[in-house]
């Protein structure tokens, strides 16, 4: 119908209605035509000029500014090589040094450009240096910094969080409709998730963190500049079908869009440190071979609040995030990223800690109760009524 | 030579975990015990028959219907389109398609004709015993299977019934407050830039960051609505944002149309498997698809109806699926709260629809903005909707009303496609669920 009436015709009807109103004749059929025209005008394509200009430009990706002084210095080669080995990296520092020398020896401009690109690609694979306090090795080498509270001591083996959740009727796995390693939360568990988010925000925002909402669909380059590969067998990034939707990935952590937020920014000294946090859904195409890592422990889609890992200037060199020091020089900032609350794993902890050995409920930690919207006097997650049964056959 | 067929039931295939049982048929001699590859042997003669006489090359083109000739896949559920009832009044069905603008989507005459042929073939088949059916010619069986598939796939494209109250042009139910009383303002884009509340970005399609107080306002709005719904005993749920083809197709979305829904890339052994119905994976977020995923193959207890659920979270719309409005009005990623009510029958659904509508209008009146309440015309309905009423709020910067909430009558559309019922299976009294959706 929109095709049949041009905008000009619609405006004429509007003008006629206005004139008739002025003359107090009030014809009903004009009124209904007016309403139709207003509805259609509301559905017309608004001029794209009304959109912010950022939405109509291509992504402005900065060239990385790596610390080649450090990378190609022979005094550092051994240390860098050892670091690559400890981090199980795939880069080759000797190749970087060789390319550096070749680049500087080359005089032909075109070849130099090609060499520079090759050098950058190779140098970008070199992982960040490791803090001397970081233990080396697998998770078994993790050093306990502090233990807060006591371990729970029980006579018999406890049920896992997944089993507890299913018994309460608040958790279900539904690979058939939602894909592998995805979870559905119901009732009290959905409330517990919201309570965890509210509680965490109530703690960190007073400490000077600014809350941001973040986009989840990003250009892959933003994700790669954070240090996460988006191609290859080992990548854990969900991507849209590129031939239909272009190059778009889903963020696996809010660190990625937050990095994009600060890309190409220059701070003044008094703006630092800048602290931001975000609540986001994290999408990770994880495939864990370990049988123990299933359910709540390793899920593909979950909610997380991001704020701690020290990245020094690794990300800022790739994302062009700088500040101006007192002398007016531009320097790369250091970034610190972290997770304040990864919901599924905290839920696991709550279920396993606060489920009594006898009884089917899970007590809610007192600090979360104000955020739970539970009926007065209720302090635990009780089993939900079984509203349905799942039909397992293909016919009724 | 007599062969014994053994059926290996392998539920978890490597390629993105198809949700049909994938059966590997292995014809072995009696000395099968020597092999160590048997997982759970069982004798299944009827499957033997399909493996001999089905089509090993067959690939389904729908997640909701899989032909009987499929050797590799068996159906996850059974759909019930009730075509016989729909064809009783063909003029009504034709009018439905015409006013929705779906004449070209479904060739109704061909569907009716093929359905009649299928009915005759089905009559013949139902009079045969199993033995007689197995001894029919391959040509007859293929004709039967192909016709069934053709009719079912065409039938799946039929939209929901049209509610008698759905108008052909937009119907304004009520206007609350006057837009004339509100001054024309600058757009939210310039206001946001002035007060440093939003950063628009080029790092993704229509990417934006709400900052500080505005981000807190978003959290507060969601919290306000969730609390209000919880107080009315709606059950909160949190479902994922990515879905397999089954609930997408069940919700009436054409999963092959990537203008309507985001298709995720999936590879197996280096090859793309995105575009196959049984391995498709889609990003949509909070929508009717969420509830389709939730209710699939569930049998609800009638005593609990009406049962109300709500979900809040991210929604991802393609540019074609989103309204063409400027700035955040046309954002592709938004936060939404949606509810669904599961009802026993049409009367309960009608009553819930009115109740929902009143609650929605009361809630938006609290904001004290000019509102317009409309009933959308048939050509603006989704295939899954029988009727939709919208709450529209006045946007001063663009001098236009924009949709902020809606209530839709879904009826038994999802129930028929996704095999969800209410009642007691053991007592044999299962009935269709009727649904009302509120955004």
From TrEMBL, chain A:
InterPro entries found in the cross-reference section: aa-tRNA-synth_II/BPL/LPL, Ser-tRNA-ligase_type_1
SUPFAM superfamilies in the cross-refs: Class II aaRS and biotin synthetases
Protein name as annotated: Seryl-tRNA synthetase
Native source species: Tegillarca granosa
Automatic annotation (TrEMBL), chain B:
Signal peptide coordinates: none
Listed InterPro entries: aa-tRNA-synt_IIb, aa-tRNA-synth_II/BPL/LPL, Ser-tRNA-ligase_type_1
Record domain Aminoacyl-tRNA synthetase class II (G/ P/ S/T): where: 281-427
UniProt-listed Pfam families: tRNA-synt_2b
Source organism (scientific name): Tegillarca granosa
Family from the record: Belongs to the class-II aminoacyl-tRNA synthetase family. Type-1 seryl-tRNA synthetase subfamily.
Lineage of origin: Eukaryota, Metazoa, Spiralia, Lophotrochozoa, Mollusca
Superkingdom of source: Eukaryota
Listed name of the protein: Aminoacyl-tRNA synthetase class II (G/ P/ S/T) domain-containing protein
């Amino acid at each position: 119908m929109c095709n049949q009436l041009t905008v000009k015709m619609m405006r004429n009807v509007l003008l006629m209605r206005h004139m008739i109103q002025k003359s107090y004749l009030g014809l009903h059929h004009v009124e209904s035509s007016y309403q139709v025209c207003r509805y259609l005008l509301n559905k017309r394509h608004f001029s794209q000029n009304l959109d912010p200009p950022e939405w109509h430009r291509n992504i402005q990706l900065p060239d990385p500014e790596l610390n080649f002084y450090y990378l190609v210095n022979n005094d550092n080669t051994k240390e860098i090589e050892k670091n690559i080995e400890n981090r199980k990296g795939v880069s080759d520092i000797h190749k970087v040094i060789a390319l550096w020398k070749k680049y500087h020896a080359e005089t032909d401009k075109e070849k130099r450009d090609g060499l520079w690109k090759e050098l950058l690609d190779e140098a970008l694979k070199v992982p960040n240096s490791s803090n001397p306090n970081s233990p080396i090795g697998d998770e078994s080498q993790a050093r306990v910094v502090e233990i807060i509270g006591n371990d729970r001591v029980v006579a018999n083996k406890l049920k896992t969080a997944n089993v507890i959740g299913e018994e309460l009727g608040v958790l279900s796995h539904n690979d058939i409709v939602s894909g592998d390693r995805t979870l559905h939360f119901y009732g009290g568990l959905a409330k517990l998730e919201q309570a965890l988010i509210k509680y965490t925000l109530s703690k960190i925002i007073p400490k000077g963190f600014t809350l941001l909402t973040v986009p989840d669909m990003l250009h892959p380059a933003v994700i790669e500049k954070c240090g996460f590969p988006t191609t290859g067998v080992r990548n854990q990034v969900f991507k849209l079908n590129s031939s239909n939707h272009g190059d778009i990935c889903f963020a696996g952590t809010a660190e990625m869009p937050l990095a994009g937020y600060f890309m190409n920014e220059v701070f003044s000294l008094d703006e630092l440190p800048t602290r931001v946090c975000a609540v986001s859904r994290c999408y990770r195409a994880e495939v864990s071979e370990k049988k123990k890592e299933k359910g709540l422990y390793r899920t593909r889609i979950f909610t997380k609040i991001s704020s701690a890992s020290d990245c020094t200037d690794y990300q800022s060199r790739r994302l062009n995030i700088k500040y101006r020091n007192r002398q007016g020089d531009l320097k790369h900032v250091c970034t610190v990223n972290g997770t304040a609350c990864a919901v599924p794993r905290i839920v696991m902890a709550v279920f396993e800690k606060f489920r009594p050995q006898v009884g089917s409920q899970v007590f809610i930690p007192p600090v979360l109760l104000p955020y739970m919207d539970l009926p007065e006097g209720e302090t635990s997650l009780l089993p939900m009524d079984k509203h349905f049964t799942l039909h397992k056959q293909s016919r009724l | 030579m007599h062969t014994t067929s053994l059926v290996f039931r392998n539920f978890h295939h490597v390629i993105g975990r198809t949700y049909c049982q994938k059966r590997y048929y292995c014809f072995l001699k009696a000395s099968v015990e020597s092999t160590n590859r048997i997982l759970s042997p069982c004798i299944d003669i009827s499957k033997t028959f399909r493996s001999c006489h089905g089509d090993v090359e067959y690939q389904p083109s729908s997640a909701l219907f899989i032909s009987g000739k499929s050797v590799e896949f068996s159906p996850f559920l059974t759909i019930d389109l009730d075509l016989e009832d729909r064809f009783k009044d063909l003029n009504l069905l034709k009018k439905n398609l015409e006013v929705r603008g779906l004449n070209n989507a479904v060739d109704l005459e061909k569907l009716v004709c093929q359905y009649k042929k299928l009915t005759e073939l089905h009559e013949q088949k139902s009079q045969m015993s199993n033995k007689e059916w197995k001894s029919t010619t391959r040509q007859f069986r293929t004709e039967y299977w192909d016709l069934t598939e053709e009719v079912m796939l065409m039938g799946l494209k039929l939209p929901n019934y049209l509610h008698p109250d759905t108008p052909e042009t937009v119907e304004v139910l009520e206007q609350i407050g006057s837009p004339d009383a509100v001054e024309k303002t600058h757009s939210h884009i310039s206001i946001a830039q002035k007060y440093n509340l939003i950063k628009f970005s080029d790092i993704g399609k229509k990417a934006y960051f709400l900052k500080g107080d505005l981000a807190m306002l978003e959290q507060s709005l969601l919290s306000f609505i969730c609390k209000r719904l919880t107080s009315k005993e709606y059950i909160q749920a949190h479902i994922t944002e990515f879905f397999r083809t089954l609930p997408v197709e069940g919700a009436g979305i054409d999963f092959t149309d990537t203008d309507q829904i985001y298709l995720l890339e999936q590879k197996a052994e280096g090859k793309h498997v995105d575009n196959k119905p049984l391995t498709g994976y889609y990003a949509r977020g909070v929508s009717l698809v969420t509830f389709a995923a939730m209710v699939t193959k569930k049998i609800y207890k009638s005593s609990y109806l009406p049962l109300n659920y709500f979900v809040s979270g991210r929604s991802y719309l393609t540019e074609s699926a989103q309204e063409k409005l400027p700035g955040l009005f046309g954002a592709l990623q938004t936060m939404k709260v949606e509810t669904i009510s599961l009802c026993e029958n049409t009367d309960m659904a009608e009553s819930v629809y009115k109740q929902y509508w009143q609650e929605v209008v009361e809630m938006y009146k609290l904001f004290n903005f000019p509102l317009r309440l409309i009933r959308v015309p048939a050509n603006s309905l989704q295939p899954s909707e029988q009727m939709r009423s919208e709450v529209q709020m006045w946007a001063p910067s663009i001098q236009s009303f924009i949709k902020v909430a809606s209530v839709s009558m879904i009826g038994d559309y999802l129930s028929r496609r996704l095999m969800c019922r209410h009642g007691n299976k053991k007592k044999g009294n299962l009935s269709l669920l009727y649904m009302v959706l509120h955004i």
